[in-house]
Design brief:
About 35% of the residues lie in helices and about 20% in strands. It is of the alpha/beta class and about 110 residues long.
């Protein structure tokens, strides 16, 4: 039996949220967590520990650098999900800063 990939969506930018929903609608992916922002850091990490998503798709548009601690904290949970950075920018500097901080992938519309 094959289980679908499980996702956590942290997307606050309306454009990214709509695009992501359109892309995911015909996939077998199962969304375990969906919120507009990370909010309380400790509660967020506890939620990741409890729900154990395979992948977190995180909107980095409004997050401030450095991203290292954020990504390391997420990957340091026992769930250890992959981190896919979503952003409205395709600027090389932005892409490199997120990837160098430890994101597994970078996507923009």
């Amino acid at each position: 039996m094959t289980y679908p990939i499980t996702l956590g969506l942290i997307v606050g930018t309306k454009e990214l949220h709509q695009e992501l929903q359109a892309c995911l609608k015909d996939t077998p992916a199962r969304i375990l967590l969906e919120q507009a922002e990370i909010g309380d850091w400790t509660a967020f990490l506890e939620k990741i520990e409890r729900l154990r998503p395979d992948v977190l798709l995180i909107d980095f548009t409004r997050l401030r650098e450095p991203y290292d601690e954020l990504i390391a904290g997420i990957k340091g949970t026992s769930a250890g999900p992959s981190v896919v950075a979503l952003h409205t920018s395709s600027e090389p500097e932005t892409i490199l800063s997120v990837i160098r901080a430890g994101a597994d992938e970078y996507l923009y519309p």
